Amino acid sequence: MVAIIDYDAGNIASVSKACEKLGSKVVLTRDREVILSADRVILPGVGSFGDAMEKLERFGLVDVIKDYVKTGKPFLGICLGLQLIFESSDETPGVKGLGLLRGSVKRIPDAEGLKIPHIGWNDITIREGSRLFAGIPQNSYVYFVHSYYLDASDKSQVAATTHYSVTIDASVEAGNVFATQFHPEKSGDVGLKILGNFLNLK
To answer: pTM score, two decimals?
Structure first.
C-alpha cells in the first residue's frame, strides 16, 4: 500500500492516479498509523515552502514523516516535496525544513532568455547506478514547474541533474529517501517508469 501524505498541497490527485495506473493500492492520508504501516510513502506538493511546512506542523506530520523514514521503507518527495526534505529555502528565510538531508533550496538565478518560474521539459543527466532511474535512458526529458532549486550539500546523494540558468540537483537518493524536483506523474512514459521503479523497490 502506498500512502500519499495529504497536507492540503496541490498535485496530490495526479500522483495518486499515476500510482493507481501502475497497479498500486493508494491511500491519501494524514493519519499517523496509516502512514507508518504503509509499504512506501510519497510526499508530493506544489506551493510555497513556508506554507507547506506550516501545514505539516499543524497536521502533526513532521514527526510522522521522520519516524516513517527511520523504518527504512521507501520514501519519495516530489517537487515541493523534494525541497521540504532539506534544511531551508530562500523562498521563506528562517523557516526550517524537515532536515532529512543536508542542503538548501535557492532561487533560480535570472538569465537572459529564460523565464522564471521554469515551466516545461528539460533533459536530465543521470548518475550511474541510480535505483530510481534504472532503465531510463541518459538525457531523457522530464517535466518541471519551479522557481527554486536544490543545492544538495552531499553531491554523492544527487541521482540526476539538469541545467536551467544554473546546474540543478533534479533528484536525490540517500538510503531509503528518494526525491525528484520534476513531476514524474506529468513526464509521460519516462515519468511512469521512474514512479514504477520507486513502487517496485525492494
So the answer is: 0.97
